[in-house]
Design goal:
Layout: H1 2-46, H2 56-79, H3 92-116, H4 122-158, E1 161-166, H5 170-181, E2 187-193, E3 203-204, E4 207-211, H6 216-222, E5 227-230, H7 237-248, E6 253-256, H8 261-265, E7 274-275, H9 278-282, H10 291-298, E8 302-306, H11 311-321, E9 327-331
Helix pairs in contact: 1-2, 1-4, 2-3, 3-4
């Protein structure tokens, strides 16, 4: 039984290796076609899109140098790891490697064919190099693009919340990226709030930055938001308190990052977000008091609560009203 299990694992590993090698083979085959088509396209452009107009000496030089150039490109692409990257996660690092590999092969093409055979038209070098870079890059990032589209479709299908992100900084961007890409996310990001006016009217990954904290109430209604994600771990206690108190008035579910350490540890994830607690609305550590003693002191008294219409004041009024005051007077300049 144990032997059979080991064999199964080995077969599974072999399949994985073969799959990886198959992808590398097709990429290599594609690159061979692409690098050769790119430079013949340069000649095609140079001579008015007519093959018959291309001088024989140019075609002969191209055909003789093509095998040398093809072999050199394949080696360079292997050296720059263009055949063993996980292209579904391709980013600026992979793009940089493609760019550097293209520079190396372009220099080799320019110097090699000129010294070994003859000087080619300028369009041959420029158009060929540009076309090669586009073709080599396109096939690799097309896979990532398709993967992102599929992930976004899955996220939209399973999403049960319409989310608003507070903060268009580094943490906010990572939260939005995970909401968009993760198949486990259960919310779709619809808008972003940030107090920096320079960011208003712009977007992150297609999600609009609609304005500052004054736009929170309006945006919640406009986008039918039911979940707010506070993603400014570096916010001062005062700013955090003010923003969260506005968010509390919306009645939405609220979550936040525990602290700035997530940024340095690379742990800015949805799973790290926690519900907003009462002490977060205070903007300071809560003071522990003997509530029974206080409520006993309020019994039978006439009590005035200033600011009683706000989030903290209204909760205070509810607590007082439940402990037999003689009269409870609420004063507030808030229109509600």
């Amino acid at each position: 039984m144990e032997k059979t299990s080991e064999n199964t694992v080995q077969v599974w590993k072999n399949k994985k290796i073969k799959h990886w090698m198959l992808i590398a083979f097709f990429l290599c085959f594609y690159d061979i076609v692409a690098v050769n088509l790119s430079y013949i396209f340069g000649l095609f452009i140079r001579f008015d899109l007519t093959f018959s107009a291309i001088p024989k000496e140019y075609m002969l030089a191209y055909v003789k140098f093509a095998p040398i150039y093809t072999a050199f490109c394949v080696v360079v692409f292997f050296v720059f790891k263009l055949y063993n990257s996980l292209w579904r996660f391709a980013s600026i690092g992979e793009l940089s490697r493609i760019f550097l590999a293209s520079i190396v092969t372009t220099i080799f093409q320019t110097v090699g064919i000129t010294l070994l055979f003859m000087r080619m038209p300028v369009a041959y070098y420029i158009v060929g190099a540009g076309t090669q870079f586009v073709l080599i890059t396109a096939v690799r990032f097309a896979y990532r693009y398709v993967t992102l589209l599929r992930a976004k479709q899955v996220t939209n299908q399973v999403a049960v919340h319409n989310a608003m992100a507070i903060g268009a900084g580094a943490s906010g961007q990572m939260i939005l990226k995970e909401l968009t890409m993760s198949e486990l996310a259960n919310a779709r990001p619809l808008c972003i709030i940030d107090d920096n006016p320079n960011k208003w009217g712009r977007n992150i990954g297609g999600v609009p930055i609609v304005g500052g904290r004054d736009c929170i109430m309006e945006s919640v209604k406009k986008y039918n938001i039911d979940q707010i994600l506070f993603a400014i771990p570096t916010a001062s206690p005062e700013n955090k308190r003010d923003i969260l108190n506005i968010c509390k008035e919306t009645g939405c579910e609220m979550k936040q990052l525990p602290g700035v350490y997530q940024i340095t540890n690379g742990e800015v994830l949805l799973s790290k977000m926690k519900p907003v607690a009462v002490e977060d609305l205070l903007g300071r550590e809560p003071i522990r008091v003997n509530m029974d003693e206080i409520f006993q002191h309020l019994k039978g008294k006439t009590i005035l609560v200033t600011g009683g219409g706000g989030s903290i004041g209204s909760e205070l009024c509810r607590q007082i009203a439940g402990h037999e005051p003689k009269q409870l007077i609420i004063f507030d300049i808030y229109e509600n």
